[in-house]
Design a protein that fits this description.
Layout lengths: L1 H18 L1 H15 L2 H4 L3 H25 L2 H16 L6 H12 L6 H20 L17 H10 L2 H15 L2 H21 L5 H16 L12 E6 L7 H12 L3 E4 L6 H11 L3 E5 L3 H18 L5 E5 L1 H5 L1 H5 L4 E3 L3 H14 L1
Parallel strand pairs: 1-2, 1-3, 3-4, 4-5
Helix pairs in contact: 1-4, 1-7, 2-4, 2-6, 4-5, 5-7, 6-7, 8-9, 8-10, 8-11, 9-10, 10-11, 10-12, 13-14
The protein binds cobalamin (B12).
Length: 356
């Protein structure tokens, strides 16, 4: 009974959140602006766009907290935000201040139960933030091959394409398998670069250039041709996710195991993915989620596909950074196979064809 009441309260709170989303985003963007360092405030329109994007992201995480995900992803996101802001000299109390502004947006909400649920979430996360010191560190702590990736990372940061290509090639010769190269060389280098961006130790331009070099290197790997009767896998980023490098590697893993693959372009929306499934009727739909709120968009997508195709729906496979970070939440999505990384995918692939 209590559980039932909690679900109704959360649903009312979510409806209220969606109803007042634009007002909340305005309030958050204004709060970010007020707390930003003068250098940021001087950036004008570009900074404004970033602040509004961040405000939307905060609302996405807030909504995910109300949809049975619990507060943990929201707290972890806020710890990340606190670190990003403090590394960029924002006011020290920027995050609590933003949450106070959000509370004001909902202060006069007509539904008392919606207000109660929203306020309870906001207060719980404010409290949790006082006790957590630091954000998650994504670096790989026991680097493969004794840290061979460090030279590669240095080449990426220096924008030295030639050196990066040589190290990539050397790794291909040594490890023989491109998927192993991705996991042991590209991934630890990019994770470390992400952390350095988070801590404001490198510029966003360096991060983008490093990713572009990696994408160019991956593009040189031919995708193995598959037999005409090979099983098919459709690959897509979870709606809202723009991290496509990992998915390219996943496509490679499928292709090397003899599957036919088709990867949808970054930015494919939920209806576009649904259309592509109806057109291809693949045996497997593999999705990549990088952040917790991407798990929400995949949940919606999977539910629609099941409603549309029933038992003929493709086998649903979900992977990526968010699945590795929140295995419990990913596992709560019924009827999907969740698979955080490529080592596990490698173990599943030979059996997938038979299950699907
Ligand atoms: C490059 C990058 C970007 C690029 C992506 C460009 C591109 N074409 O891919 C751009 C600039 C677009 C970007 C944007 C953002 N990013 Co970014 N990004 C990264 C970075 C540095 C590298 C990602 C990457 O390529 N990794 C290498 C690949 C090989 O690893 P992977 O993606 O994890 O994939 C592997 C596994 O997860 C798995 N896998 C992945 N998908 C699947 C699917 C299946 C089915 C299976 C089985 C397995 C599987 O296999 C892969 C190979 O081993 C990461 C750092 C990090 N820790 O990942 C941050 C990172 C993910 N980004 C982050 C953030 C916050 C953002 C932004 C919000 C930044 C901003 N303020 O705008 C936006 C959000 C964009 C969006 N809507 O998604 C944070 C996320 C923190 C969090 N989890 O809360 C990170 C961790 C950086 C950080 N330390 O702060 N980003």
């Amino acid at each position: 009974m209590i559980e039932h009441a909690r679900i109704i309260e959360a649903a009312a709170a979510r409806a209220m959140l969606q109803h007042r989303r634009e007002t909340a985003v305005d309030a958050l963007a204004a709060a970010f602006r007020a707390c930003a360092a003068p250098a940021w405030q001087a950036c004008g329109d570009a900074a404004e766009v970033e602040m509004r994007n961040e405000a939307h992201r905060l609302m996405d995480f807030f909504e995910a907290a109300l949809v049975s995900y619990g507060n943990e992803p929201l707290v972890r996101y806020l710890l990340w935000l606190r670190q990003v802001l403090s590394a960029r000299q924002a006011a020290p109390d920027a995050v609590p201040y933003c949450l106070d502004q959000l509370e004001q947006v909902f202060a006069d909400a007509a539904s008392a139960s919606a207000r109660a649920a929203l306020f309870a979430t906001l207060r719980e996360v404010q409290y949790a933030l006082r006790w957590h010191r630091s954000a998650r560190d994504w670096r790989v702590h026991s680097p493969p091959n004794g840290g061979d990736y460090l030279a590669f990372e240095a080449a990426l940061l220096a924008g030295d394409c030639r050196q990066a290509r040589q190290l990539f090639q050397r790794s291909l010769d040594h490890l023989a398998h491109p998927v192993a190269v991705a996991v042991d060389l590209l991934q630890p280098a990019l994770y470390s670069i992400g952390c350095q961006w988070q801590n404001n130790q490198i510029s966003v331009a360096q991060e983008h250039r490093a990713t572009a070099i990696v994408e160019a290197l991956l593009a040189t790997l031919p995708l193995s041709p598959a037999a005409a009767d090979a099983p098919t896998a459709l690959l897509a980023l979870a709606p809202g996710n723009r991290h496509g490098v990992g998915l390219r590697v996943v496509a490679d893993a499928f292709a090397r195991a003899g599957w036919q693959t088709r990867t949808l372009p970054a930015g494919s929306t939920l209806p576009a993915i649904i259309d592509a499934v109806a057109q291809d009727m693949p045996r497997v739909l593999a999705l990549s989620a990088a952040m917790a709120h991407h798990l929400l968009s995949t949940r919606l997508l999977f539910a629609r596909l099941r409603r549309l195709h029933g038992v003929r729906a493709p086998l649903l496979l979900l992977g990526g950074l968010a699945v590795a970070e929140y295995p419990d939440i990913a596992a709560r999505q019924e009827g999907i196979l969740f698979c955080p990384d490529l080592r596990m995918l490698g173990r599943c692939l030979p059996r997938l064809d038979k299950v699907a």
